[in-house]
Task: structure prediction
Amino acid sequence: MTQGTQTKPVDLFVIGGGINGCGIARDAAGRGLSVTLAEMDDLASATSSASTKLFHGGLRYLEYFEVRLVQEALEEREVLLKAMPHISWPMRFVLPYHKDMRFESETPTSRVLSRVMPWMKGRRPAWLIRLGLFLYDTLGGRKILPATRTLSLKGTPEGAPLQDRFEKAFEYSDCWIEDSRLVALNARDAEARGATILTRMQVAHATREGDLWRVETKDMESGAEATHYARMLVNAGGPWVGRIIHDTIDLPSTEGVRLVRGSHIVTRKLYDHDKCYFFQGEDGRIIFAIPYERDFTLIGTTDADHEDPSQKPVCTEAERDYLIAFANRYFAKAISAADVVWSYSGVRPLYDDGASSATAATRDYTLKVNATGGAPVLNVFGGKITTYRRLAESALEKIGEHLPLAKGPWTAGVPLAGGDFPVAGFDALVRETQAAYPFLDGTWARRLVRAYGIEAKDILGPATQAEDLGRAFGATLTEAEVTWLMDREYARRAEDVVWRRSKLGLRLSAEEIAALDAWMTGRHDRKDSRADAAE
Ligand SMILES: Cc1cc2nc3c(=O)[nH]c(=O)nc-3n(C[C@H](O)[C@H](O)[C@H](O)COP(=O)(O)OP(=O)(O)OC[C@H]3O[C@@H](n4cnc5c(N)ncnc54)[C@H](O)[C@@H]3O)c2cc1C
Result:
């Protein structure tokens, strides 16, 4: 089936609707470029919904001397927090200290230390962690986030869930981010600034025709094919970046991507306070335990090489058991596989810097333009959720060498939809929303304000009782919210809503999710047939 040809070329065609593709599309549209973005599945369906969900500097990267990356990420935390105080919030991290903590043998810091202090035998000393945290506190121009402090674990709420052998901890700041909502909101902002966002649209092939790219797309639902033209291509395919280079656009490139799988498990809530734990292992790795979705605890992650991007990453039994055993070296009350209610897994598309272990491979991003033989293409390797906005700015710098930009960098501090309120104003906004809609209980109001910020009231509209919000799908999910997600945030199937735009999948039964899917499919089909009739 052929859908047709978009003969008028756009300036930029972006392949991939993860955080990097959507961040670049937003920045480019805001600088006056015409932009089309194609995502072959749902937005954030790959790595960008499977992260640990932290805007963080990455304390452990300091051991690899990745100072540029850490500094940029630390500086970004507060810039991003201010632009999205609904989907991002400050968190405190408790790092219990014990003398058995060891480095990964690969880290440059461990190599230096074992030369000058061989008696340490790979141990990670407390003074070194304190030094790292001092750098962490000072490198990033922190204004909102509180500083590092030392904490006793004896008789404190932070010590209560841990084994007695832990007596002392360091506590420092980073931020939480709802990763998949971040992607959808960037896509919305890009569209509001003129971009076209196509989801469930695969880029099957792209070839150079002189100064233009001819891009062939395939609608993954209807099978319809279409041709687009663009002056420049951005390959933000995440784990598929290498495959796109070699198969989809046929570039003679030697750049490599290293795919490193990371898995998380979700358990019932393991402790009562709202801080996270940063656990160091005896293998040099670290994991987090994080309060999650009010009633749960998130534990992760692993690092395992992953060969094929098309092979859906899943948390293997071995990874689950590794995370359980790791956490059990800290928690007083041991957890078991029976406590795991959900798991997820994602693939980090890291630039292949030749590091020997998956843990050691660089987390920094690399942008490469290929303009030999016609229209240019920008390939995006690596990156973190935390640095997506800075990555987009660097991408625009490179794009600007080929296309005229109407203005310079503009995204710092510009709020995403729903986020135009002060960082300290979240609780007041929840109270305001509840006062305007007294039928919402505290948990429901909080959930809506966390997800939609000041737009929560646009979803609730003139409702005066829960029944006014239409069909109830369970766990406070209503027709009004699902309709909003379908019409404004590109949701198409139940899983887009219950595992990405929200995490209500943790609370809904399989039957409830199936009923939601049937309802969404019916609504989508009815909309399609109305559009066909109007043509
Ligand atoms: C386990 C784990 C934990 C992490 N934790 C953190 C963290 O706490 N903080 C942090 O800052 N970073 C974290 N990261 C890193 C961060 O998640 C990634 O760097 C980021 O999500 C990568 O985004 P992306 O847009 O490059 O890739 P993706 O999100 O994978 O997006 C690429 C998209 O391209 C699409 N695509 C591919 N081929 C085609 C095609 N031919 N046509 C159309 N579409 C196509 C895919 O469907 C996909 O949606 C973590 C990563 C992992 C794996």
